Amino acid sequence: xxxxxxxxxxxxxxxxxxxxxxxxxxxxxxxxxxxxxxxxxxxxxxxxxxxxxxxxxxxxxxxxxxxxxxxxxxxxxxxxxxxxxxxxxxxxxxxxxxxxxxxxxxxxxxxxxxxxxxxxxxxxxxxxxxxxxxxxxxxxxxxxxxxxxxxxxxxxxxxxxxxxxxxxxxxxxxxxxxxxxxxxxxxxxxxxxxxxxxxxxxxxxxxxxxxxxxxxxxxxxxxxxxxxxxxxxxxxxxxxxxxxxxxxxxxxxxxxxxxxxxxxxxxxxxxxxxxxxxxxxxxxxxxxxxxxxxxxxxxxxxxxxxxxxxxxxxxxxxxxxxxxxxxxxxxxxxxxxxxxx
Length: 341
Description:
- The chain has two domains: 5-250, 3-Layer(aba) Sandwich (Rossmann fold); 255-324, Alpha-Beta Plaits, CATH 3.30.70.100.
- 31% of the residues lie in helices and 25% in strands.
- The chain has helices spanning 71-78, 100-104, 122-132, 137-150, 166-178, 196-211, 223-229, 247-252, 269-276, 303-312, 327-335, and strands at residues 5-14, 45-55, 60-64, 86-91, 94-95, 107-110, 184-188, 215-220, 232-237, 240-245, 258-264, 281-285, 291-296, 317-323.
- The strands form three sheets. Strands 6-7-8-3-9-10 form a six-stranded mixed beta sheet, sandwiched between helices.
């Protein structure tokens, strides 16, 4: 059961800036991603830089990365909302951009921002969506009742969507996407802005839908969400896939596992050389003139020796942060910055 997805050398270049993110939603781009022609007028923003990967049938697959990394652009292409500059993508056997109608019937989409019709009630939003996909009146009424109960919206079924809280709108958006029972469900930052209780409810609904063989594709910059829900994931940054695999495989690929982020008043070559000699240390990096990242197979036991080495080098240790093996640590290792940056 389930439908697989295949992406081949997808590239997306914007000739004009796309919408900028507000409050963690939408697109954003980092400085330095532009190029100009000889006239100095043309601007190009590279959102995706020839990415390729496969999503297996019936798995929960995550795209993990900070805002502006290319996650939403990828989802936009896979759901026919954004046309790629080059490359191809397939939902099952259907080329998404050559066979859009057939591909659309297989997918359900939950965008970052709710795009509900505020002039309709919750039930009307669901039944209208069912009618769009050719469901009979009896079937769509029954399906709407099931989803309203599942998403704990039964008591608000006859209320206008404009009266809903942000969390309720998100739940209704997901219910609408599931109304025609799609084989592939796309969720773009589904937990953004949700309270913890609603977030846990969402996670359980995603698991339930996956258990019946549906393929789930979600984007997120929440490490715990990716670690908890995803069978496999790809970490994306600046439009490129920098790592992919199961959460366990990715965390196991971190040199030494633990990351000690040490901050000094200053750093000397002697101090860096001494830190590399500590037992269990596999890698030492200095991202700036005051910070050192130490990758090792242990955490706390290295703090005392690091303090002694700093004193011997005439430096002062001002801050220590220990990170256990995690997707965040992996991202720091590959990019030198946080997933939330």
